[in-house]
Amino acid sequence: MRLDAYTKADSLGSLADEWRGLLQTAIHNSIFATPEWAETWWRSFGDGRELCLLTLREGNELVGIVPLFIERDGQRRLVRFLGGVDVTDYEDIIARPGTEGDVWQQALEYLDGHHLELDLHNVPGQSATVAFFRQLSRDDRYVVAVQEEDVCPTIDPLPADWESYLEALPRKERHELRRKLRRLMGDPDLDAQLCWQQPDLRKAMDDFVRLHRLSSPDKSEFMTPRMVGFFNGVAQMCREHGWLCLGFLTIDNTPVSAIMAFDYGDTFYLYNSGYDPAYDELSVGLLLKAQSIEHAIVLGKKRYDFLQGSERYKYDLGGQNTYVYQISCVRR
Question: Are residues 142 and 158 in the same domain?
């Protein structure tokens, strides 16, 4: 394999067509692995960091992409996946199936030669990357740690219709969900409505950010002006590619809860959400998420991914844990 290293931001665009083609064959294919996601993230968070985009080729054929960046931690130079830690729920290499180990071996030789330490996050548990570094931990030349980092509850497979989904829930959770839906959607005085079409994306994102910040002090602190810029960039990019699902629950035409989700491949990804605590008694946050599951079923999705975090509602709505891992690796 021939390795090439790219350090200029315009390489994210120039490699995009080949990247997309490889991604269609790769085992790790999520919205977070697309060149569009990497480019959007880099525009918001690339300042002060060094791009380190590695490609591996057999002849002229692209067989692997290792999308990394470098940042300093004191005297150490750490290498992480493009996408950072906080806003990209799955991160991995993109490789032709069966070549993942060779791709990582070539990448490690390059990184070792530049005295760089790997600090990888959000690696899916089923990824060949996890298996590779577990095997590498037996190599005395390296200090390797592979540890569970977080959970990503999923509904997999997603039932083919709403009633089948409800019947699959435990009896208590099914009863509570039906009761809450009847109370909210069946009360004509509340005029509760669901909306999945947002003709004015700027206004819709303003409403989303407002509700996100209202949800909790932690979410308000998270949603900095830079983060708002990133979320707006993601929304615009996803709308252009047909991946955006921005949903609102309104009461008397006032948005009271919101979700940002992605329709990508056979999966519906619940990315982030917000709600107005003044409507807590009506469970508006939970019910919009439940309705998004029905929306995913209508769209024909085979899998619903709640993404990272162990919040109770994910399990009440039928989520089962999958895992992501943190991996560190440095040459002795």
Answer: no
Query: Helix 128-136 vs helix 100-113: angle between axes, to the nearest 10 degrees?
Result: 60
Number of folded domains that form the chain: 2
Is 54 inside a domain boundary? Answer: yes
Residue 188 has pLDDT above 90, yes or no: no
* 164 — pLDDT class (breaks 50, 70, 90): very high
Judge if the upstream peptide bond of residue 157 is cis by omega within 30 degrees of 0.
yes
CB 257 within 8 A of CB 284: yes
Residue 87's domain comprises 2-151+323-331
- Angle, helices 284-298/171-185, rounded to nearest 10 degrees: 100
Does residue 75 have a pLDDT over 90? Answer: no
Cα 52 from Cα 110, distance rounded (Å): 11
Query: Does any domain span residue 16?
Result: yes
Distance CA 97, CA 181 (A): 44
Residue-wise pLDDT tens digits, 26-64: 988 999 999 999 999 999 999 999 999 999 999 999 999
